[in-house]
């Protein structure tokens, strides 16, 4: 089995690389976030949480009866 071990030196090198390429890092993070949001929109993993149904119900009630 292949195991990756991160030492303090590896973390320091990675941190130095990310800080020296701030714009590219920010662009890649925004791309990953966009892909994540797109996947969660199409295939939500938490689609049966109880508070989602109540919040949708409250929104519908507010739209039909604004008082």
TrEMBL record:
Pfam families: TMEM33_Pom33 (PF03661). The chain crosses the membrane at residues 28-46. InterPro entries: TMEM33/Pom33. The keyword Transmembrane helix applies. It comes from the Eukaryota. The keyword Transmembrane helix applies. GO terms for cellular component: membrane. Keywords: Membrane, Transmembrane, Transmembrane helix. This is Uncharacterized protein.
